[in-house]
Specification:
Shape of chain B: globular
Radius of gyration of chain A: 13 Å
Largest interface: A-B, 29 and 25 residues
Largest sheet of chain A: 7 strands, mixed
Shape of chain A: globular
Helix content of chain B: under 10%
Order of helices and strands of chain B: EEEEEEEEEEEE
Radius of gyration of chain B: 14 Å
Largest sheet of chain B: 6 strands, mixed
Strand content of chain B: over 45%
Distance between the termini of chain B: 41 Å
Oligomer: heterodimer
Distance between the termini of chain A: 32 Å
Number of strands of chain A: 11
Chain lengths: 114, 114
Amino acid sequence: ETGVTQTPRHLVMGMTNKKSLKCEQHLGHNAMYWYKQSAKKPLELMFVYSLEERVENNSVPSRFSPECPNSSHLFLHLHTLQPEDSALYLCASSQDIILAGEQYFGPGTRLTVT
Amino acid sequence: AQKVTQAQTEISVVEKEDVTLDCVYETRDTTYYLFWYKQPPSGELVFLIRRNSFDEQNEISGRYSWNFQKSTSSFNFTITASQVVDSAVYFCALFNTNAGKSTFGDGTTLTVKP
């Protein structure tokens, strides 16, 4: 596999469920990102990790919990979500954040909360 | 605070026409990066170009060209001789190197008709 992969591609979950989104990058990058893309809203940066340490948290509700076990993997753990959390969740990676190398995006996970 | 404005929500052109997508940004930082991404119907954002705040040279890549003007805080994108495959949502983004923070515009939906 090359580039940035995300699983699952589609997810439907109830408000009481717990699920996790997975992102994997095969580019040797040191920075990884989670974005949320909702209909009629701009792309929202949720979390930034650099060398497995979180460097940015844009006031994201605690029902979203990121995890970066190593520089190639990034997870987004979901619990007790709300219907308004339904969106496309995109993962991205870049060489690093200081030089702002271009971000490579995965195909996204389309999440529907019922 | 930083902001990216893409005033054109939707643009529709006929194949072979030239089209310019506008992007205006606001930031207090002196060092930043500007990006353009393309999001085709498949959903995956594709990196097109990166520009740093100290490089105002315009760039041309095939049918694509970018005009960066710091004096007007604009980073416009022109597609020459548009093709149906250019139909997509195009996002302009600003990257703050100090905080690793990305801000995306709302996107412009371009439809190129045969």
